Amino acid sequence: MQNTLPVMLLKKLILLPNQEVKLELNNDLTKEVILLSGKKFNHEVLIVCPKNELEEIPDVDDLPLIGVIGKIINPIDLPNGHLRVKLLGLRRVKIEKYFSTKNDEMLKCHYKELPKEKISEAEEIAYKRKLRSLLKRFIKVSPNISNSILTTVDEIDSISLLTDMISSFIPISFEKKISYMEQTNSLKRAEELIHDLEVELEAIKIDNRIEKSLQKELEENQREFLLREKLHEIEKELGEEDPKKQEVENFTAQLNSLKISSKTYNKIAYEIKKYDLMPEMSPESTIVRNYLDWVLNLPWNKESEDENNLDTIKEKLNQSHYGLEDLKKRIIEYVAIKRRNSHLRSPILCLVGPPGVGKTSIATSIAKSLNKEFYKISVGGLNDSTELNGHRRTYIGSAPGKIIQGLKKCETKNPLFLIDEIDKMVNDYKGDPASVLLDILDPEQNAYFTDNYIEEPFDLSHIFFILTANNQYNIPTELRDRLEIIELSSYTLFEKMDIAKNHLLPTILKEHRCTKEEIRIPDAVLEYVIKHYTKEAGVRDLKRVLENIIRKVITENIEETEIKKTLTKKEIKKHLGERKFVEENVVKHMTPGLVYGLAYTSLGGVVLPLESCMYEGSGKISYTGSLGKVMQESVDVAISYIKSHCNELKVNDFYFHKKDIHLHALEGAIPKDGPSAGVTITTSLISLIRNEKLPSDVAMTGEMSLRGDVLPIGGLKEKLIGAYNEKMKKVFIPKKNHPDLEDVPDFVKKSIDIIEVSNYKEIYKSLFRDEKI
């Protein structure tokens, strides 16, 4: 008949023969095992330990094939419903089979006894002697094991029992204990135990050596500290206190208060020690002192608390600036995500737009709304890279770069830095500032930015960088790739009116200690000022003009006790002189060859008149108006297209052999370049040769190919706003620019008939009289 016992699984606990453990059980199935063992199996159960302690219900195939029969002693029911038992390990057995019945979830096993070992007396004596010797040495150096164990061990004669007893005492890993439990050969178990005891003794020996070394170092440091304190007190009593020593102590205290890497700590500590040992009259002493003053006063650990209330941020941004919705939305998104992830890196934004649209001022407002310190760095015309990353200390008068200077001034490591006019940096023999900006702005590198002066890495990843530029295509490509570009378009007349009424005038009146009741500028007069005394994409010049008006009105009425003035157009002329700009910049008297193109300049989108004429000659083509190389090539493309399609376009080739053609872009002093005037040039030449006038309210933009395909262009939003400001009614644009129309204001799209074309024949058919091409 097979031997059968119920199985008890003990996770993270190994029971060895002759070992006793106390358990408190709360599992119902385990309680049933205890109950069954008492009724049918003489209070005996088979104890096994699953190898995978994370598995909640171990698979039978994963259970060990060697187990320990345990005797259940004194089971006691506790008031909390738990069962307390004592288990005594009896002997190892070999499991033949684990099983459970359908009606009974309890795991049982069939087992058989292990054969009796045959061990020579000499071997057993030798192993027992070695084990007892190692155990005595282990107990001697280990403070956690009592000497009373030796008495118990000396009374054991069986090598098998001895190994199990010692295994239960020494601190070995869970995996090792499983190995001991499964090893049925007593001599092999003894060999493993001897090896583990020798390893543990060597580890204790090394631990003690390390402990003694640390203790000695600690005692020496304490001794040095006490001696220095005594020396300090003696000098104090004698009135010989050295101010330099006080300074060194302050430097050391500052260093100890910083949470920095050990490498940086050791570097600064070395500089402090060097300064301490230097004679005061040494020239290098001042250099080292300046260095310590810089490096120790950087905000290594200081961080200001950002504003995270979205409503408050929105309110502050709307109070300071009109429009700029894309930028405001991006700031709100950043704060919203930052609230969920406090470790979120700040975005690196680049605001691109014409002068005067509020790039610099909105950066200041963002800093205030987010409760961040603000620092501005102007890099327009910068050609010396050391201005950004500092000079080496070998040079006289060396200092950190603007980045480190800004951090020290802000006294926090998470300020907002505005880097202004990055499209105007210069690359020459002094260095390449754009390359340095890559290290500063790249989120994968700027956590380890190293200033040439500081010589230790400083984490810039907490800084909120905002950059500005007038033209994104003048930004170096590798730098532009790391920036999140947000375009700020030029303002329309209505937007300028709104900004002037709600932002500029209230600010100007407040500065001049006036109220809107004292000096009133009606809407019609304000519109007159904007149209005839300013010509800009932004409102910078408008602000100056309004300030000029208010100053003159106050000066004129300075003797009056009370000012009550409503300005008229006549008074505006009196204060500002005759109109500087006519209402419209376009020529209304059309002639053959005159066409309106659209251009994107630093002042925003503008309507650009292009005219041509011809006269007797030999087919020569000339062009003027400060045309760049790309625009000159567009003229060549237009000529080739017209020649190759002269029959379709009803153009006589005669004109290209017997006539000279002159093409001119108005406002000749302003440089012009780019391929977007291709369709305008083509239309001007066809209009000239066919001697047909074009409507004065039609404009166009698009690059031309030799096949007549109209290719996409940049700055469509600005160009359409420019066309709207000049009261154009119809504008031809490339069909491939259709996605860009989403960014164009709705009132512009409603006011202009925007025609999308993919080939020049569509423009020709719309403008010229031919029914068929």
Overall, the morphology is elongated
Number of helices: 26
Radius of gyration over C-alpha positions, nearest whole angstrom: 44 Å
Low-confidence stretches: none
Strand order of the largest sheet: 18-19-17-16-20-23-24
Biggest sheet overview? 7 strands, mixed
Describe the structure.
This protein is α/β, with parallel strands linked by helices and 773 residues long. The chain has a 7-stranded mixed sheet with strand order 18-19-17-16-20-23-24. The chain has a 5-stranded mixed beta barrel with strand order 1-3-4-5-6.
What distinguishing features does this structure have?
773 residues, alpha/beta, five-stranded mixed β-barrel, 26 helices, 24 strands
Task: Describe the protein's topology.
Elements: E1 3-9, E2 20-25, H1 28-40, E3 44-48, E4 66-77, E5 83-99, E6 108-113, H2 121-141, H3 148-154, H4 159-169, H5 174-182, H6 186-238, H7 243-256, H8 262-277, H9 283-296, H10 310-320, H11 325-340, E7 348-352, H12 359-369, E8 374-378, H13 386-389, H14 402-410, E9 416-420, H15 433-441, E10 449-450, E11 457-458, E12 464-469, H16 477-480, E13 484-487, H17 493-511, E14 519-520, H18 523-533, H19 540-556, E15 565-566, H20 569-576, E16 595-601, E17 604-616, E18 621-624, H21 629-644, H22 655-658, E19 659-665, H23 678-690, E20 698-700, E21 703-704, E22 710-711, H24 716-725, E23 730-734, H25 746-751, E24 753-757, H26 760-767
Parallel strand pairs: 1-3, 7-12, 7-13, 8-9, 9-12, 14-15, 16-20, 18-19, 20-23, 23-24
Antiparallel strand pairs: 1-6, 2-5, 3-4, 4-5, 5-6, 10-11, 16-17, 17-19, 21-22
